[in-house]
Design a protein that fits this description.
The protein has 289 residues and is mostly helical. The protein has helices at 2-31, 38-55, 60-83, 91-113, 138-160, 162-172, 174-179, 184-206, 220-230, 235-255, 264-275; strands spanning 128-131, 134-137. It has one domain (2-275): ABC transporter involved in vitamin B12 uptake, BtuC (Orthogonal Bundle). It is 70% helix and 3% strand. A hairpin with a 2-residue loop joins strand 1 (128-131) and strand 2 (134-137). Helix 2 (38-55) packs antiparallel against helix 3. It is globular.
Length: 289
């Protein structure tokens, strides 16, 4: 029964890594930028949700919607004001900019909300469901269910909407998309907004499990490893890589000495780079012309 308990915990943790990894992949596919502040956007989204739900007393559902809309606007403003001027600069400069942006977001969050861990008032927190001898926390069920729902919505969005199809075109070939009349700058802003909203949803889902504080965004490093393991150009690969790392952390903690679970993500990353550098789903070089 302990094995099943670890499976549930690892699956829910892996879903969080996968959601953050989705943001990495979305931004890279569309703009060829790597956003190392993606985990900090998750942290910021969790704090914004706390402001709406805990601070203003809004119903949880209304607070979630308001948080997602706020983070969409923040992500678009971030792209317009900070990242767009960096177009054409060396990739290393953009990389360092996003790393610095993460430090700024953590400092701003600490100044506004404080550095003490805070809990989001969620209807799932503390509730459990017993199935046989297996005890499932509602918060874990919410993480898995929310992730599945989001993946379904993203599939429909990219398959059946004009904006989603335009994002796919931009990710495949920016020059061809430009000549086809797709407004690339607007699409890039929407991609950043969508990635910020996905990160915020990850923060909202994980808040009942992991207390919200400025340093929680550092889990983005493990999500980056998940994105590489899955294949940095693959959205399904990002989710599968995240789940693989989440499960590995749980089972490593059970069978190996304490402390190794925290580095298991990077051990998996190193192994993947040695055996299959392109990741499980290699799509980076398969862009359409």
């Amino acid at each position: 029964m302990e094995i099943f308990q670890l499976l549930v915990s690892g699956l829910s943790l892996g879903c969080v890594y996968g959601l953050i990894a989705l943001g990495f992949v979305l931004i890279y596919k569309a703009t060829e930028m790597v956003n190392f502040a993606q985990g900090d956007l998750m942290m910021l989204g969790a704090f914004v949700a706390i402001s709406f739900v805990n601070g203003l007393g809004w119903p949880f559902a209304a607070g979630v919607v308001a948080t997602l809309l706020t983070m969409v606007g923040f992500g678009m403003a971030l792209e317009r004001g900070v990242l767009r001027p960096m177009i054409g600069e060396p990739p290393f400069a953009v990389l360092m900019l996003t790393i610095g942006l993460g430090f700024v977001l953590r400092a701003v969050a600490g100044a506004i909300w404080g550095n003490q861990p805070r809990a989001l008032e969620s209807p799932f927190a503390g509730e459990t469901l017993q199935v046989g001898g297996l005890i499932l926390g509602y918060e874990n069920i919410a993480i898995v269910g929310g992730t599945l729902g989001l993946c379904g919505l993203l599939f429909l969005f990219f398959r059946h909407t004009r904006i989603g199809l335009a994002m796919q075109a931009a990710s495949q070939n920016q020059l061809a998309a430009f000549y086809a009349g797709i407004p690339l700058k607007r699409i890039f802003s929407l991609v950043w907004g969508l990635s910020a909203a996905i990160a915020a949803l990850a923060g909202i889902l994980v808040a009942p499990v992991m207390l919200v504080q400025p340093l929680m965004g550092l889990v983005g490093i493990k999500a980056f490893a998940a994105a590489i393991v899955g294949g940095f150009g693959s959205l399904p690969g990002a989710m599968i890589g995240g789940i693989a790392i989440g499960l590995a952390e749980q089972f490593v903690g059970l069978y190996l000495p304490p402390g190794l679970s925290e580095v298991s993500a990077f051990v998996i990353l190193l192994g993947m780079l040695l055996v299959r550098p392109e990741g499980l789903f290699a799509t980076l070089q398969k862009k359409k012309v």
